[in-house]
Amino acid sequence: MNIARASIEKPILTWIVILGCLFGGLWGFSSLGRLEDPAFTIKQSVITTRYPGASAEQVAREVSEPLESAIQKMGEIKTITSVNQPGVSLIEVEVKSTFDGTELPNIWTKLRAKVRDAARDLPSGVGEPLVNDAFGDVFGLYYAVTAPGYADAEIHQMGTWLRRELLAVEGVADVELAGLPQEAIFVEPELSLTVAQNVPPQAIVAALATADSEAPAGSVNGDGRRTLIEAPAGSDSVSEISGLSIGVGGELLNLYDVASVHRGRVDHPSLILRHNGTEAFSFGVAGLSTENIVEVGHRVDARLAELFTQVPEGVTLSPIYQQHVVVEEASNAFLVNLAMSVGIVVAVLALFMGWRASVVVGVTLLLTVVGTLFFMAVFAIEMERISLGALIIAMGMLVDNAIVVAEGMQIAMLGGQSSRQAAGETAGKTQIPLLGATVIGIMAFAGIGLSPDATGEFLFSLFAVIGISLLLSWVLAITVTPLLGHYFFKRGVAGGAGAYDGPLFRAYAATLRGAIKARWLVIAALIGITIACFAGFGMIKQQFFPNSNTPLFFVHYKLPQGSPIHETAEDLAVIEEWLAEREEVVSYTTYAGQGATRFMLTYGAEKPNASYGHMIIRTAGIASIPALQADLEEFGRAALPQGEFRTRRLVFGPGGGDPIEVRISGPEPAVLRALSQQVIATLEEASPYILDARTNWREPELVLRPIYATDRAQSAGISRDHVASTLRFATDGIAGGVYREGDRLIPITVRLSHDATSDLRDQPVWSDTGQHFLPIEQVIDGLDYEVQNTLVHRRDRVTTLTVGADIPSERTAAEVFAAVRSAVEEIAVPAGYALDWGGEFESSTEAQASLNGQLPLSLLVMVLISILLFNALKQPIIIWLLVPMSVNGVALGLLGTGLPFTFTALLGLLSLSGMLIKNGIVLVEEIDLVRAEGVALREAIVTACVSRLRPVVLAAATTILGMLPLLGDAFFVSMAVTIMGGLAFASVLTLIAAPVFYYVFFARSERKAQNAAAVPA
C-alpha cells in the first residue's frame, strides 16, 4: 500500500498525526527539563585521610601508597591520582568511561569497602579515610551574602538559617555554604604563672575536654514510668569556660587565675571570601536531577525574596551565577532562532517555489520540530545547549525530505496528474531512497553520540535529537506533506508548458552538458582544488572546545608555596581596587585559599592551598572580556610581581588541565624537579607563546626540625611527642575540646599568647616522670632547617610531577603544542622515568580515540545502506567520492573567518557529509530512474539533474540561511561556518561533480550496450 496516497485517501489518520505532533510538542516544551549544559557524570571520587605530624613524603609513602594499592585492584578504575601534603592525603579516583552513571553507586560502595579494609593496616595516628562521592555535584544557583558590621556568630546564624529554609524549597537537593568566618575559643595560659604553679598545658586541655561534653546520665523508674536523667549543663559562655577549675598536685585553681580566655577568628582559615571587595559568605543551591532547573530557580528566588524581608538592615544578597536565568534565556533564544529559521525557510521556498509550496514545507517543518520536542519529553532528553543546537543543526536537514516530495508532487500535478496520483508516484519513487539517506545522515553522528567517554555523554543529546527529528521528518514527508499538497497544490493541464523550461534550468542544463564534455578537465580541476583545500585545512587553527559565551572569566593567583592565606587575600585586594574602577565589570568575587563551589558542570576548582587565590569576574558582555582580560593581566603582573598572575576564560564542554601539560614520572623527587626545569626551558625555547610555565609541586619549603637528644630526654621522661606538643602549644595551639553554640561546635584551642616574645628554644616542656617543667633546650640539640617537598603528587601509584603552561588568548593549544612537541619528546630521560602529555592534548586525543573507535562501525553502516539502496557498487562509489571534497568549502569558510576547527566544527563536518550523501543518493537515484525509461546516458543525466536542481539548491539555501542565528553563539559559530561554507561548495559538487562522475563510470557500459544493440541491425 502506498503510504502517501493513503494519507490523502484516509486523512483522519494524517490529521491525528498532525494534531499529535502539535499538541504533543506544546506539552513537551512545557514539561521538558531545562539545563544549561548536558548532564554528564563526573566519574570521580575523593578520599581524604589525615595523618597529623607527617611530612608530605611520609603521607605519600605510609598512607597514599597502601590505599592506592588497594584501590587499583578494582577493574572499574581508570586513573588514581593523589596530592600529598604535610598531614593530609587527598586521593582522586576516576572510573572508566565505559561505566555510566547508574553503575556508579555500586562502584562507590565497592570503593568504600576496599578503603575500609586497607585502612586497618595504616600506621597509628592516621585518621579514618573519608570517601566523598558527591564530588561532581553542581550548585547552579550561586549567591554571595555580605553583612558588614555584624558579629561572626550572627553571620553563622544567618547562613545556617538560609540553608535550613532553602532546603525546604520544593526541588532543592542540597545547599552548600562557604566562606563563613571560622572561629575558635582561645585559652592562652600565662607561661610564668603555669610554670610557677606546675600547671602543664595537658591539665588545662583535660579540664576543657569535659567542660561541654555530652554524656548519658541514666534514668529512674517510679510510679510506673521511666524518667530520663540529663547530664549537667556544660559551659555555655566564654566567661564560664574561664571559671573552670583545674586540679594540680591536690589543689584547685581557676582557669582565669593562670590564663586568659577569649573568642576570635582562627589564624589560618581555609577560605577568605569577598564579593565586590566586601567580606562575604556564599551559598550554592543544587536542584534535584529530576526537576526543571528553571522552575526550581524561580522558586528559590521567590523564597529568597521572602526571607530577605526578615533579615536585618545592611545584609545584601548578590547573585554570582544563576543557572536558571541562563537556561531561560537560552530557551527564549531558541524560540527566536526557531521562528527565524522557519521564517527563512518559508521565505526562500516562497521565492523559488511559490507560496503554496512554502506553506506545505513550512508546516511540515514546524510539525517536525514540535514533534521532536514531544519525543524529547517522552525519552527524558532535557532542553539544554547541545539539544537546542541539535534542533538548529537539524533544521536545514529536516526540509530536504519535504522539499523532494513537495517538488515532485507539485510538478506532477502541474503536468495534469491528480493529487493522489502525484503523491503516489512521487513518494513511491523517493520514499526508500529518502529513508536510506535519512538513516545515513543520522549515522554520521552515531560515532559521537555513542562514544562511551565524557565527550560522548556530553554530546549524546545531539545524536538523539538529530535521530528523532530526521526520522520524524521522513515520516511526515510521506504523510503530512502529500495531504497538505492535496489541499494547496493546483492541478495543471496535461501537455502544458514544461516545469523546467525556465532560463535558470536551461542555463544549468547547458553548463552540465559542457562539464560532461570536458569531464577530464573538470575532474582534474576538482582534484586540484581538493588538494589545495586540504593543504589549507592544515593552516586552520585547531581547538578542542570553544570559549563559553557566559560573560565570566577567572583570575588564578599563586604566591610561593607556604605563603600565609592573609597575604594572598591582601594581594587580591589590589586587583579588587583596580576592577572597581572599570565600567565594564559588573561584579567580582574573590577567594583566598581555594576555588569556588562548583557552580557549573564544566567548572573545576583548584585544590585548597593557602597561597592560592582565585577570582570570578563578571562583565557586561563577552565582547568586553578580551580587552579587559589583557589589561588586567598587564596590571596584575606589574602590581603583583611576587606571585604568578594569570587569567583564563571559561570553556565549554568537558576537559581539564592546562593548555600545555607535560607529566614527568619516576621514583626520585630530586630527579623529577631537575627534569621539570629542563622541560620548562625546552618549552620556552621552542615557542614564544609559552606563558607562566610552572610545576604542580610548586616550590620546596623550609621546615624547622628539633634535634631530639635521645639520652637526655629519655632520662628526663620527655618523649618526642612531648617535644612536639610543647612546640605546637607555643605556635598553632593544642585542641582542647569544643564549645557548643546551637548547632555549631566551636573548637577550643590552648596556645601560648601571640604577645609572648619568648624563643622556641626557651619553651618549658612538662615531664610526667618528674612532675615539673624543664627548658626544652635541655632535651634537644638545637633546631635545624630542612628543605622539604610539601606538595607530592602521584599518578597510578607513581610519583609524578606535572609541568603546566598557559598560552596567549589569540593562540590555540593545538597550534602551540605542534610547535613544542618534537622538542620536548627529544629530551633524554634516565631509565625508570617517563614523559607523557596531559592537558588539552590528552583530553582531545582521548575524545578523538573514542570517536575513532565508533566511526568505523558508523561508516560501515552508511556504506552498506548506500550499497543496498542501489543494489550495485558504482552508484555508491560515485556518492562517496564526493565526501572528501566536502572539506573544500569548510577550509575556505574557516580560513576566511579565522575561526578554529573545534569539536563542534567536527560535528558540522559530519553533518555536512550526511547532507552531501543524502543529496547524492536522491540525485543518482533519479538518474537511474530516468535511464530505466530508455533515455540515453547523457540526456538521462541532464534531465534527472535538472529535475533535482531546485530541491538541491533550496535544501542548501534553507540550510545555509538557517545557520545564520548560530553565528552569534560562541559554542556553535565554528560549526555554523563549517556547514555554511561546506554546503555551498557541496551543492556544486552534487550538481556538477556527481553527474560528471556518473558519466565517467557508466559511459563505457553505455557504449557496450549500444554496440551490442547495433550488431543484429
TrEMBL record:
One term under GO cellular component: plasma membrane
One short Pfam family name for this protein?
A: ACR_tran
Q: Which SUPFAM superfamilies match?
A: Multidrug efflux transporter AcrB pore domain, PN1, PN2, PC1 and PC2 subdomains (SSF82693), Multidrug efflux transporter AcrB TolC docking domain, DN and DC subdomains (SSF82714), Multidrug efflux transporter AcrB transmembrane domain (SSF82866)
Q: Where are the transmembrane segments?
A: 12-30, 333-352, 359-381, 387-411, 432-452, 458-484, 520-540, 853-870, 952-973, 979-1001
Q: Which InterPro entries match?
A: AcrB_DN_DC_subdom (IPR027463), Acrflvin-R (IPR001036)
Keywords linked to the UniProt accession: Membrane, Transmembrane, Transmembrane helix
- Cite a single GO MF annotation: xenobiotic transmembrane transporter activity
Organism domain of life: Bacteria
- Tell me what this protein is called: Multidrug efflux pump subunit AcrB
Taxonomic source organism:
Sulfitobacter brevis
Q: What is the lineage of its organism?
A: Bacteria, Pseudomonadati, Pseudomonadota, Alphaproteobacteria, Rhodobacterales
